[in-house]
Write a structure and sequence with these properties.
heterodimer, A: about 500 residues, alpha/beta, Alpha-Beta Plaits, TIM Barrel, three-stranded mixed β-sheet, 15 helices, 23 strands, B: about 375 residues, alpha+beta, Glutamine Phosphoribosylpyrophosphate, subunit 1, domain 1, five-stranded antiparallel β-sheet, about 30% strand
């Protein structure tokens, strides 16, 4: 075959004076970039194969390697960017859909970065989290409009039976990442961390491996269009069930786990034959309307005896507010909304980068719509797609979210370097792969510790920010857009976000 | 004119209740609030008085402020759609050395013409309608056998302006305001009233944004942009509509911390955790101490970590609430009992009720 018209994307600089030819890079690279010579004195590099994951750079004991974006190659052109040219060359060579992993990397506006938080001065004392309690505990699930209380006795008695709730010690949940898309060790890290910090992780649509059943109290299981691994015990062991209608990274389309990744353990978990492709259809073939969704919601509620909340996850698309309202009316206890920057293990690049809307706008609109319809308390709002820091978390809550999902941030905590090649199954960091050589690179004990640290650090930061605003319980910030101000946004954007411009007082 | 923004303010609050329901003159409350002169800055003061209109006790007494006297006809047209006006008059005022000019204040005694069961909701609707749609007119109070008198000035001067020493009521609540800007609008002073509720408040509510949106869910429109307004509406919603017992309002508005709830016995734990799960949007955060008057009584409450002062005292048949002890001692040097309210605590007094002496329900050690 003729040589590809593509230039290597990365340039590898090897400092000859530092390189001791130890061959670590050779052994670490699943993409076969580095190649030891016969006498093992020199190491050569095949830059064409490099994905820029920085694994070799990180592990090189003498810091001899640098991997950076290759300059030049494509002639600069304001219209024909490198991304477009690469895409065309690849497709002209392969004739296929361009695949990618992780979330949209285009430079669409990130509204979190245009929102600023408030703090108290003089008229309202700020609260010091080192001295006073500041509460992050949140409950997800349907809330009654009012409580019926019997006041006649010595102590009041609540008569209303509360709908089932998920108790979160921190309003941050690990988003849906299936065993299959990520490794066993990565899943174990998430499940153990969720248990330790008092939050939840989501099984994704790949079923739940029997080893993880003991973590059920901290796991939300997913029912997606492929129904992989869905059975009675799967639904009953979990803390909540989430029906996945859509995903922010690929709204409107299904999923595909290639047969090569369907190992024995994954076949056991998903209840499909080994090495067979696991294909999730674009729609659920029993949901062609909102009333069909209602049936599935209640079929699941029946199966779990109404003991746990049922969530419905949709992607943030143009009419998201009206759709969410329908979902709430269909009986969802939690509505999950996933924005355009939400991650994925594999998606067509054209879909990932062009379909859907930013989560900030979707969240603001959904919260406002549900409130104006007087049904906001019927469901909790969980949002996903592009939460990068504790500041994003607190801004999301002030906009109206009950809690946020983090996927990419958690994987980065485990070592992901965002090379966006999850779909190849060659993750050098041992996260998005099933290759036993690679998966053992992620020690689940260390992985858990790192995730626990991350959530702990964020919760400290959230408490500092809350205290600064003179708020000592997170529910007093939830939907409290008075504590947000917008910088550098148009009037329309401010209106959609329901946030005043910075400089405007109360 | 009406404040364009919500204005934070520090304040003095004071309240006197005769537990036998015997009316006393307004002189006492004026003296009490005057002692705390330094807690206000002359930009707002006001009083609520209960039991002052025994002749019209069954009728709604509306106090209406007219910045623009020409709007009188508009307001009266709206009132006459739902009520018959049994009596109306200008509220008598006296020119003093300090306050030489004031807007027109009218009072109307109204008989409701519609179905009895909707009465309160209809009154709330009329108040919302006038206050949000008619500029230049503002309904200051809308209860029965009670009235609110307020304006721009130090509270003692406002009291003298309205000749409060000539009124006799069994319960008096006063407020001196220290707003942090200079906009002086008579309607912006406190107490804030709705139906027979009157609220005076010292503090700033940092949860305002969500409390306001929470109330929208139940049809309350906050158009005054004051913290006190959301407190009044929350009290109305919880007590009148959700039937929450006043002594337990603190469980919702200034709930105990989860770590305190964890340590409670099963019954209390269930009560408090249910409340917090359902009523998160009604939690008031930030510093406040408030006095709320209602027919037959008043209660005081402070925020969940007690960032603003409030004391309760009892002497014979009188129950006092105040920001400072001096304001109570001024009118009753000897007291049977004096307590500082604990964080999140409600202390109430009602006509005809034995003194409960407070602090039975206090959860906090603060």
């Amino acid at each position: 075959m003729a040589k590809s018209l593509l230039f290597p994307e990365f340039k590898i600089d090897r400092d000859k004076e530092r390189c001791i030819s130890c061959q670590v890079c050779v052994r670490q690279c699943a993409n076969d970039v580095h190649e030891g010579s016969d006498n093992e004195d020199t190491v050569l590099s095949q830059e064409e194969n490099c994905v820029g994951c920085q694994r070799c750079v990180n592990l090189c004991p003498t810091n001899a390697l640098t991997v950076h974006k290759r300059e030049g190659g494509f002639r600069p052109n304001g219209n024909w960017s490198e991304q477009h040219l690469r895409g065309i060359y690849k497709q002209a060579e392969s004739g296929g859909i361009l695949l990618t992993g992780m979330g949209c990397d285009r430079s669409y506006p990130i509204y979190w970065d245009h929102l600023l938080l408030n703090a108290s001065q003089v008229t309202n004392p700020s609260i010091d989290p080192l001295r006073e309690p500041i509460e992050l505990t949140s409950y997800l699930g349907r809330k009654e409009e009012k409580l019926d209380i019997d006041w006649s006795g010595e102590f009041p008695l609540v008569q209303t039976r509360l709908a089932p709730q998920l108790e979160l010690k921190v309003p941050v949940v690990f988003s849906a990442m299936s065993y299959g898309s990520i490794s066993y060790n990565a899943f174990r890290s998430l499940a153990e961390a969720a248990r330790e910090v008092g939050t939840f992780c989501n099984s994704g649509e790949g079923g739940l491996h029997p080893d993880f059943y003991p973590y059920g109290d901290n796991i939300v299981v997913q029912v997606a269009s492929g129904r992989f691994g869905v059975h009675r015990d799967y639904l009953r062991v979990a803390a909540a069930v989430e029906i996945k209608i859509g995903q922010g990274a690929k709204p409107g389309i299904g999923g595909h786990l290639p047969g090569e990744k369907v190992t024995k353990e994954i076949s056991r978990t998903r209840k499909i034959p080994e090495e067979s492709d696991a294909i999730s259809p674009a729609p659920h073939h029993d949901i062609y309307s909102i009333e069909d969704l209602e049936r599935l919601v209640f079929a699941i509620k029946e199966a779990i005896n109404y003991k746990k909340p049922v969530a419905v996850k949709i992607a943030a698309v143009h009419n998201v507010a009206a759709i969410a309202s329908g979902v709430v009316r269909a009986g969802a206890d939690i509505v999950t909304i996933d924005g355009i920057r939400g991650g994925t293990g594999a998606a067509p690049q054209v879909i990932r980068d062009n379909v859907g809307i930013p989560i900030e706008l979707a969240l603001a609109q959904v919260d406002e719509r549900l409130r104006s319809e007087g049904i906001r308390h019927h469901s909790s709002l969980l949002i996903a797609g592009g939460i990068r820091s504790s500041a994003d978390v607190i801004k999301a809550i002030a906009l109206g979210a009950d809690a946020v999902y983090v996927g990419t941030a958690a994987l980065v905590g485990l070592g992901c370097h965002l090379c966006q090649k999850c779909y190849t199954g060659k993750c050098n960091w041992g996260i998005a792969t099933q290759d036993p050589v690679l998966t053992k690179r992620l020690n689940p004990n260390i992985g858990k510790r790192r995730l626990v640290n991350l959530i702990r650090a964020w919760s400290f930061e959230i408490k500092e920010m809350l205290g600064g605003m003179g708020v000592n319980a997170i529910e007093s910030l939830r939907g409290n857009r008075e504590h947000l101000r917008a910088v550098g946004l148009s009037k329309e954007e401010c209106a959609v976000l329901g946030v005043k411009a910075a400089g405007e007082g109360w | 004119m009406r404040d364009p923004f919500r204005i934070p303010s520090g304040c003095a609050v004071s309240g006197i209740l005769n537990l036998d329901g015997k009316p006393v003159s307004g002189t006492h409350i004026i003296r009490s609030i005057e002692v705390m002169h330094e807690r206000s800055n002359g930009l707002g003061g006001g009083f609520a008085a209960y039991g002052i209109y025994p002749r019209y006790a069954d009728l709604y007494a509306f106090h209406v402020l007219y910045d623009d006297p020409l709007r009188k006809q508009d307001v009266e047209t709206i009132l006459k759609q739902r009520f018959s006006v049994e009596h109306s008059e200008e509220i008598p005022c006296r020119k003093t050395d300090v306050i030489k000019e004031w807007p027109l204040f009218m009072r109307y005694f109204l008989r409701y013409l519609g179905e009895e069961e909707n009465e309160d909701d209809e009154v709330v609707q009329v108040v919302m309608e006038v206050n949000s749609s008619i500029h230049g007119a503002y309904i200051v109070s809308s209860g029965k056998n009670m009235g609110i008198f307020k304006g721009v000035g130090y509270p003692e001067d406002i009291g003298r302006l309205f000749r409060l020493e000539e009124y006799r009521g069994y319960c008096w609540i006063a407020h001196g305001r220290f707003p942090t800007n200079s906009v002086g609008w008579w309607g912006g002073a406190h107490p804030f009233g709705l139906l027979s509720w009157s609220v005076v408040h010292n503090g700033e509510i940092s949860s305002y944004g969500i409390n306001r949106r929470y109330l929208q869910n139940f049809g309350y429109l906050c158009n005054l942009q004051t913290d006190t307004e959301v407190i009044a509406y929350l009290v109305d919603l919880l007590v009148r509509k959700h039937r929450v017992h006043i002594d337990y309002l603190g469980a919702i508005l200034a709930s105990p911390f989860w770590e305190q709830i964890e340590r409670m016995d099963a019954q209390k734990k269930h009560f408090f955790s249910s409340i917090r799960t359902i009523y998160g949007g009604a939690l008031l955060n930030g510093p406040f101490s408030i006095i709320v008057g209602f027919p037959g009584g008043m209660f005081g409450m402070v925020d969940r970590i007690k960032l603003r002062p409030m004391l309760a005292a009892w002497k014979n048949k009188t129950f006092f609430l105040s920001s400072e002890e001096c304001a109570i001692r001024e009118i009753s040097p000897d007291l049977d009992r004096l307590v500082a309210l604990k964080a999140g605590e409600v202390i109430s007094g009602r006509v005809g009720e034995r003194n409960n002496y407070g602090q039975k329900l206090a959860v906090s050690g603060v």
